[in-house]
Every structure is written in structure tokens, then in C-alpha cells.
# Entry
Amino acid sequence: MQKSSHPDAIYGRGSTANRTPTRFNLLSRTVDDDWRDEHIMVDGETPRLRTSVIEEHPKSIVTFNTSPDLPFDRSINAYRGCEHGCIYCYARPSHAFHDLSPGLDFESRLFAKPDAANLLRKTLSKAGYKPAPIAIGTNTDPYQPIERTYRITRQILEVMVETRHPIVITTKSAKVTEDIALLANLAKDDLTGVALSITTLDAKLARILEPRASTPMKRLEAVRELANTGIYVHVNIAPIIPAITDHEIESIAEAAAEYGARSISWIPIRLPHEVAPLFQDWLDLHFPDRAAKVMNIIRELRGGKNNDPAFFSRMQGTGAWAELIRTRVRIAKAKYALNKSKWNVRSDLFVAAANDRQLSLF
# Structure
């Protein structure tokens, strides 16, 4: 990873600073040596911000939803916060619930849930449980760097293999291939699919846009490796950022097809709550020449606001810009034979997990 050429950029981070959340009337935090919010210049350079992890022990791990514009009704998030540091991440505001900033805190003060697999097993052993695809990676990335240490996502996949339960994964990390044997085991029975999010093919842009995610080429190589193993691979061209990445729609679609993806989708950038000012800071730092233009187009996509939280339109945008992007994606799908409708995983092979009481009989 190379440093950004801009002197105010923080090495390996997407955010330029922390912004104290205001939605919950939270007090400003005390700055200390371990969790510092400000960076003192040392020998003319900003020191690297360390990543710290707190282990979290929730009582349950599967979250159910009734959102009408989501293709799943349950999900698992093994981690809170994400070290990838994608400046556009719509999950950043969730850190405010912990009296932490959606800025640098979100990408450096992480939470891990090491009991996730055991909690999942309890859910899947309940008599009344009805199987349906579980989505993983819907909030923060299941293959962010700390997965290599905690292996929580891998443990979840092991439970899926044991119970023949369907699971779909969204990630922007090539580390997903480290679990390719488990994924192939599920894929042979149509129990899984993997979506790789590819925002740009420009490695230099990716370095400042999503600094600790896998490079675009590594993601494409992961698409090929997964596809060659018989795993259904989908590419999310997401988020599409007007005047920053929108010119790459066709080239990403072409590359997705070349490397073995079977379908593509798109989502315009979403800027809920604190994400909007963080993204504005990022634009002012890296693209001052077009910052106003980018925000104006985003507002055109979002009904005159920075963000539109309404069901359906939040995922597609509205107006002329949204229709233009939709048309371009539709043409690219046809041109590169990417018209399949994502994965269609099955739920009829499920076998309830053995609970602790059952295991004690042996």
C-alpha cells in the first residue's frame, strides 16, 4: 500500500478525522494514548493510527428484518466497524450507538463476536426454526483484515456446511478465497453464492476510496478462483459515485464477465447521517476541483437531499441520473451476458444443528 500524496491524508485510512456523533446528544470523548482522535505530527508526518479490537458477547447473532427491498430476511454480522475504511460506507453511523465516531473510530476501533458460531448453532437447533438464506456482509465486511485472526466467518461457514443451511456472502476482500473449500462444499448443492463489490478498476483511486480493501485486481482474481471452483459469483458495481467512478460501469461489467461472474448489479452512493459530512471532507481533500459537482449530482439522485432512506429508492436513486445509470447497466448486462438474476439458493436440505443437550448424550 502506498501513501496518499496529500499531506492531510491519514496513512491507510479513508476518513480524514473523527466527527462526534450528534444524533444521541453524546458528549465528546476523552482523548487518550490508546484511542486517540487527534494525530500529532512526528518528523513532519502523521503517525499511523493503530487498530484495536474489543470482543463482544451478544445473546443472539442472527438479525431478522422485514425490509421490502432486501432479498433476504435474516443476516449475520460477525464484526462491528470495518478496517477497510471505505469512505462511502453506509454502516458508519452504527458506531454512534456505541458513543464512537463514524469517522476514524469506525475503521480503527472494532468489535468482534467470537461466540457467533455457537450462537448460530443454538438458533439453528430450535424446533420451530424455518431455514431461509442468511446474508453475511450486509453491514460490515466478513473478510476484513481481522478475520484472519478471529476466523469468525469461517466458523459460521462450518456450521452452514454441517447443517446444509443456505448462506450468501457480500465482500470486497479476496480473503474470501481462503474459505473456498467450505464454499465449494455448499455450492455443489446450490447453498451459497458470493458477491464481490467492485467500485473501481483504478488501483490509485481504490487506495484512497477504500484503503484497506483488496485491490481491484485481487478482487477480480478472486472472482475467477471462486467461479472456477463452481461457486456462483456476482459482482456489485457499488457504490457508483457520480463524476468519480460512474465512467467505469461498462469496464467493470466487461471485467466481471471476463473473470467469470455470472451477474452484476449496482447501487448509487448512499450518505446517511454522518456519512455525508465525512464524504464531503474526503471530496474536499482529494477532489476539490469537482466536490461541488459530485454533491450536486448525488442530491439529484436523492430527491434534492444528501440521502434518501425510503425503501426501494434508497437502492436505486431517482430522476434522470438514476435512469441513465440504469440504462447503461442494462445494456452492459446484455452485451456481456450478465443477465442472470443473481443466485437462487435452496433451503430444502437443512438439517437442524445438534444443541448442547443433544451433544451431551454422547
Notes: DSSP finds 13 helices and ten strands in the chain. The two ends are 51 Å apart (CA to CA). The longest helix spans residues 319-335. The domain at 53-357 is CATH 3.20.20.70 (TIM Barrel).
